[in-house]
Amino acid sequence: xxxxxxxxxxxxxxxxxxxxxxxxxxxxxxxTLKGYDQLLNLVxxxxxxxxxxxxxxxxxxxxxxxxxxxxxxxxxxxxVSPTDGTDEIANPFIQPDGA
Length: 99
Description:
This protein is mostly beta strands. The chain has a single domain (12-82), classed as SH3 type barrels (Roll). It contains no helices and five strands. The chain has strands at 18-23, 28-36, 42-52, 60-72, 77-82. The protein has a five-stranded antiparallel sheet, with no helix packed on it. The model has no long low-confidence stretch (mean pLDDT 87). Residues 6-86 form the Sm domain.
């Protein structure tokens, strides 16, 4: 019997497509997924990091930093999602001022 390890996620459908990766510690990176392994180490090309607000490290700003080709360690990866088909919407729970 061979105890072959397989990854829980099937990232093959995201190869050569844009992905958004959230990392431990609050960093957020987008780029083109070029490769991965069973430990969830990701290789991203043309990666861009969204910088955080210096006053509130939990919030990201519109400022970005170009990183180029990077490797995201599997132990730091929290979330992997495609960039296509995702949009930010307005908060539906905010009460209007007049209510």
